[in-house]
Amino acid sequence: MLCNDLRDFIELLEEKKELVRIQTEVDPVLEITEITDRISKQGGPALFFEKVKGSRFPVVINLFGSFKRMSWALGVDDFNSINRRFSSLLKADAATGFIQKLEILQELYRIGTAKPKEVKSAPSQEIVETDTLSLLDYPVLKCWPDDGGRFITLPLVITKDPESGKQNMGMYRMQVFDEKTTGMHWHTHHDGAVNFRKAAKLGKKLEVAVAIGGDPVTIYSATAPLPYGIEELFFAGFLRGKPVEVVKAKTVDLLVPARAEIILEGYVEKGDERIEGPFGDHTGYYSIADKYPLFHVTCITRRKDPIYPATIVGKPPMEDCYMGKATERMFLPFIKMQMPEIVDINLPMEGVFHNCALISIKKSFPMHARKVISAVWGMGQMMFTKFIVVFDEDVDVQNTSVAAWKTFNNVDPARDIMISEGPLDVLDHSAPRPIYGAKMGIDATRKWPEEGYQRDWPAEIQMSDEIRQMVDRRWKDYGIE
Questions:
Q1: Residue 92: what pLDDT?
Q2: 85-122 burial, b if ≥16 CB within 10 A, otherwise e?
Q3: pLDDT per position as a tens digit, 49-89
Q4: Strands (E) located in 374-429
Q5: Rounded to a whole number, what is the largest CA-CA distance in the chain?
Q6: Chain centroid, CA 207 distance in Å
Q7: What confidence tier does 90 reach under pLDDT thresholds 50, 70, 90?
Q8: What domain count does the chain have?
Q9: Does residue 315 sit within a domain?
Q10: Number of CB atoms found within 10 A of residue 174's CB
């Protein structure tokens, strides 16, 4: 089921009747969003818009907008296989030391097949445009009515650490300002922003390449929360089981996906900023306008007949939710490798993946839940999690109704809530100041005497196995449909 490029994936979705082609002309300003949002909320198919007003290029959207399609994108048959596949890779037991565990983790990225394969020529460079380039030729979407303009929403933004020479690939929205410039909306915590600051400190421009389109694993890899210095193109090769083909960009010293649809090449530099936004974001609210670096496009390379992939974000559930759930399943084994007491994690879609985490643990000592809460806040991008609720191991945290019932019944606010302050996601509008504010940890486990609980914890209501089995046998006799 491995797809070599975007076209392979489109063909696969058509074969499985998970993509609909629309021949009616549509407007990239708002109309495509409204159509896609309705389909997304219904759990509907990917959409291929063949005629887009103002452009000769088609738009494909909602590619990853279901658990099925997200699974196929990663080369597995069902969503649960994502977790099983990664669990099988980690053989370390609970006795393995922390440093050894980190070494095991890094070894996963040293697998020979993961290294990108450089090629001399590529479909993404069939056409090369410099003097005649124009971003306005492409069907870039304006997604929501109060957006500041049109945004490239599925870009693979490639930069290089000017010190180590390692490439990074992230997904940062890009507002198109004119024919040759866009915004570069990387948050201060993002690796692209780190590389930008390093280049600025050295007094250099930062070269940037932006791939639009590519194989689905590579597109997903740009969103993966990898440790700084782990190259996403290596990770994509690891996930694929075969290397990603790359080619040297025409005007910048970067390697880009050879089978992408479109490549933008250019630079950003210190002090060259512009107000970007607002933008209807994945939180379901508009992110406010603010200053971000200008990306100057100096060259565009593309296929002769490129397909423009896009996504829209907004009130969940939407396409990005399924990508986020894939990340949750994929990285759970890595989290458990560092904290083996964790049984399961659910980042509910309503929490937009950085506002809430529901965690079940094998509780083995007093205040164990607080230890887990503090540790999770110290793990990479989990530091942004605004609410963490910890449950006993017998609680199914994937069932949010059960999790809510347990929380509302088991928690004494004075005893079981801890408040901390620290980094928050840039898009969190609730905090009194940007990127910093309060976070809450909630211990929803059964309380022990050592934790100050001096009563008998009540047993949950359960029917006996004997009666359940008897009713199962006699169910048809009751005449209840």
A1: 43
A2: bbeeebeeeeeeeeeebeebbeebbeeeebbbeeeeeb
A3: 999 999 999 999 999 999 999 999 999 888 888 877 666 55
A4: 387-392, 417-423
A5: 82
A6: 24
A7: low
A8: 2
A9: no
A10: 27
**Residue appearing with tokens 């590529």:** 122
Whether 455 and 401 have beta carbons less than 8 Å apart is answered as: no
Give the helix, strand, coil percentages of the chain, each rounded to 5: 30, 25, 45
Q: Is 1 a member of any domain?
A: no
The number of angstroms, rounded, from the C-alpha of 120 to the middle of its chain's C-alpha atoms is 31
The pLDDT of residue 112 is 46
Name 128's bridge partners: 301
Whole-number pLDDT of residue 230: 83
Contact 284, 314 (CB under 8 A): yes
253 is annotated as an active-site residue? no
Q: How many CA atoms lie within 13 A of 172 on its CB side?
A: 28
299 & 398 share domain:
no
- Going by the DSSP 8-state scheme, the letter that residue 26 receives in this structure is B
Residue type, 158: I
- State whether 272 and 388 are in the same domain: no
Distance CA 90, CA 243 (A): 21
Question: pLDDT of 168-207, one tens digit each?
Answer: 999 999 999 999 999 999 988 889 999 999 999 999 999 9
User: Amino acid identity, residue 100?
Assistant: Q
Percent above pLDDT 70 for the chain: 94
pLDDT at 96 over 60: no
* Beta-ladder partners of 267: 207, 296
Residues 24 and 90 both lie in one domain:
yes
Give residue 318's pLDDT.
Answer: 93
Residue identified by tokens 């200008």 is 294
Domain that includes residue 217, residue range:
6-310
Strand extents, DSSP E, 106-188: 117-118, 127-129, 150-152, 155-160, 167-170, 174-176, 181-183
Q: Evaluate whether residue 467 is within a structural domain.
A: yes
Angle, CA of 271, 276 and 279, to the nearest 5° = 155
Q: Please report the pLDDT score of residue 113 as a whole number.
A: 54
Tokens matching residue 341: 């007491």
Q: Which of 5, 191, 215, 281 is catalytic?
A: 281
CATH of the domain at 405: 3.40.1670.10
Rounded Cα gap, residues 118 and 178, in angstroms: 32
* pLDDT classification of 95: cutoffs 50, 70, 90: very low
- State whether 123 and 248 are in the same domain: yes
How far out from the chain centre does Cα 148 lie? Answer: 23
Q: What is the CATH number of the domain that holds 148?
A: 2.30.110.10
Tokens 């025409």 appear where? 250
Answer yes or no: do 73 and 165 share one domain: yes
Q: Whole-angstrom Cα distance, residue 301 to residue 239?
A: 27
**pTM attached to this predicted model:** 0.89
Q: Report yes or no on 320 lying in a domain.
A: no
Counting every residue, how long is the chain? 481
pLDDT, tens digit (0-9, with 9 covering 90-100), for 434-475: 888 999 999 999 999 999 899 999 999 999 999 999 999 999
